[in-house]
Amino acid sequence: MKIAVFAGDGIGPEVTREAVRVLEALGLPGLELDEADVGGVAYKRHGHPLPPETLAVARASDAILFGAVGDPDCDNLERHLRPEQAILGLRKELGLFANLRPAKVFAGLEDFSALRPEVAGAIDLLLVRELNGDVYFGEKGIRTLPDGRRQGWDMMSYAEDEVRRIAHVAFRAAMTRGNRLCSVDKANVLETSQVWRDVMIEVAREYPSVELTHMYVDNAAMQLVRNPGQFDVVVTGNLFGDILSDQASMCVGSIGLLASASLGEGSFGLYEPIHGSAPDIAGKGLANPMATILSAAMLLRHSLGLEAEAARIEAAVAKALADGIRGGDLGGSHGTAAIGDAVLERL
Ligand code: IPM
Ligand code: MG
User: Does the pLDDT value for residue 272 go beyond 90?
Assistant: First the structure.
């Protein structure tokens, strides 16, 4: 079992270190961890945010544990050299088209949500975000119009096969949960969304036990704060999913608690916290590593088939939270290593 560990920038290395300690504590036979540089740190050392050596380590692994990328020093670089290109490049190069972002409130943390506790307590949803298409990967550019004005443009598109494969992931996920799938689009305005919706309806015929509904993205943003308990599985495109998943994290209470999996057709996957590199607190030992530790649990479950070990880690995190272990993101004073220790003790 080879796990590539790409810690990246900002708080990435600190939170990843704690997740690695947790993985090592399980004492899994044959577990091998291979580190490589990604993001701004890779640009500084190798001249590219996703160097070929890093991609080679990724390809030779069974799964990737990813920290975070993003570095304000790199904000003025040409776009293809910016740290964010590392994660976008890995998703594209490795065919990781399905992003699973579960959002659920941990018992006892209802008060940390930006929503009223009784509203927040009802959240238990899975956001399935398409990750290889949409306006993220379309042609784009900045051009000068004949009258001299600058114009930025980005091409949004979805081909039916791209929609179909993410639809299957979402329907299958719904069947393991509450059998309800809400597809989020903007079909009242965008042709891209019309194709998205038509394909969702076609695929639904293969899953008669799942109830498919549709919602415009603006309404979905509203419903997510009004009554998030109504959602079971939500499936949406790359851009809408990016936005709604950050919103869902605040409904839960902290972005420091949410894990994600990015999957392709096989068992290979990339696992990362949904938070970013948080340069303001980087290197201070303040970041909450729980989202990365929970990402490691998802890695064990989805890529290595180690359900029992995954559940053990999740239970240890839940126990730590129940015992009052709180990072700064939850108004507490536990630092990164202290939270790692607390999870390890309970493991
Ligand atoms: C995410 C992030 C990335 C995205 C950035 C870092 C490119 O916001 O994983 O949600 O937009 O997909
Ligand atoms: Mg995002």
Answer: yes
143 to 24, 34, 152: CA distances (angstroms): 51, 42, 6
Residue 259 contacts residue 273 (beta carbons within 8 Å): yes
- Structural domain harbouring 297: 1-96+257-347
Check if 37 is active-site: no
Domain contains 103: no
Domain boundary among 253, 277, 304: 253
End-of-domain residue from the set 253, 272, 299: 253
Query: Ligand 1, from 242, 245, 246: best to mutate by most atoms within 8 Å of Cβ?
Result: 242
Cα–Cα distance between 70 and 264 in angstroms, integer?
24
Q: Is residue 105, in this structure, part of any structural domain at all? A: no
Q: Are residues 221 and 346 in the same domain?
A: no
Q: Which position among 34, 62, 242, 341 bears the catalytic label?
A: 242
- Catalytic residue check, 186: yes
Q: Ligand 1 atom closest to Cα of 88?
A: 7
- Calpha distance 83→42 (Å, rounded): 8
Which tens digit of pLDDT belongs to each residue from 201-220?
A: 999 999 999 999 999 999 99
Ligand 2 ion: residues within 5 Å (CB) = 242
Mean pLDDT of 236-253: 92
CATH number at residue 310: 3.40.718.10
Note the pLDDT tens digit of each residue in 90-146: 999 999 999 999 999 988 888 888 899 999 999 999 999 999 999 999 999 999 999
